[in-house]
Amino acid sequence: MHNKTVLTGVKPTGTPHIGNLVGAIKPAIDLGNEVVKAGGRHFMFVADYHAINAEKNPAVLNQKLKEIACVYLAFGLDASKSVFYRQSDIPEICEITTILFAYTPKGFMNKAHAYKAAVDKNRAAGKPDDDLINMGLYTYPTLMAADILAYDSDIVPVGKDQVQHVEIARDIAGMINAHYGKELLKLPEYFLTPNAVLLPGTDGRKMSKSYNNVIPIFADKAEIKKAIFSIKTDSRPMEEPKNPEEILVYQIYKGIATPDKTEEMAEGLKEGKLGYGHIKNMLLDAVLETTLNAKEKYDYYMAHFDEVEEMLSNGAQKARPLAQKTLERLKNAVFGR
Length: 337
Ligand code: ADP
Ligand code: TRP
What we know:
three-stranded parallel beta sheet; 2 domains; 14 helices; binds adenosine-5'-diphosphate; Rossmann fold; two-stranded parallel sheet; Tyrosyl-Transfer RNA Synthetase
């Protein structure tokens, strides 16, 4: 990571849950801090242009942007070290996107994962393929390519579902460079967080806001407790030795608890010394422990969002000149200036 530029984009969609936290938020913050420590640069932005494809209510959009920005700050994103900004504060991104469009084969978009998933959903519901699909969603990967290429990013940490989008960015950059016979754009690489945990939800499926099976990060204790105590269990008595891996509460616990504590729960289950009530309380403690410190910070930033606005605008001031440079390089090449 030494001297590398690492860029992370996050869509402001919905109140984050424990799955987002361990699978995406924490790993991204840790990596960002590591990169900065190693002398590299870290860009972290809220992808609000991407969000408007799906969210048309400005009040909701604003609330989600606030929540996601405050979550990242609460869990240790350091806005004085990482360049933290909102996508829509960098208008050059849209100009870069327009230029990239001229080099984006339509076939790439037809095959892009976000668009295909939307078509599949329509088909499953018996609707026409393109029902409610707007051009923003269809061309999503080109805007994402502009996000990445604008800052000469070397590395883009992503979940599996975004790998293809980074590859599209790389392909578009490669085609432009080949056409002009020089390295106008830096070819980015994706980075899959090693051992990223996929947390199951309270019903055993992947924890996801779309399944309504989440353990929220910052709800009050009663609400978190309610979610945890709704986790499916069976009717075996406590004394019966159990295989921890078959127990949903344990599967969630091991995603967030320390190795020592995880081992303690595993042993207790194997030896028939811990009942379902016990382990649910242990999970509740682990969730509260993980989130308690952060919750204070989160509440503070939500109540003083003007401070966050200032951070975002400082971030944009740092990011914009770089995007301007990339845009100028591109314009000079494509218009022969
Ligand atoms: P959701 O499934 O709740 O809609 P998103 O698709 O918005 O969540 O995911 C946001 C980020 O959180 C992605 O990087 C994704 O990989 C990660 N993530 C989502 N659900 C989980 C989970 N259950 N376990 C681990 N990571 C997750
Ligand atoms: N598409 C990403 C997601 O859905 C968000 C995103 C937008 C992004 N632009 C990006 C991620 C650039 C990395 C780099 O999660």
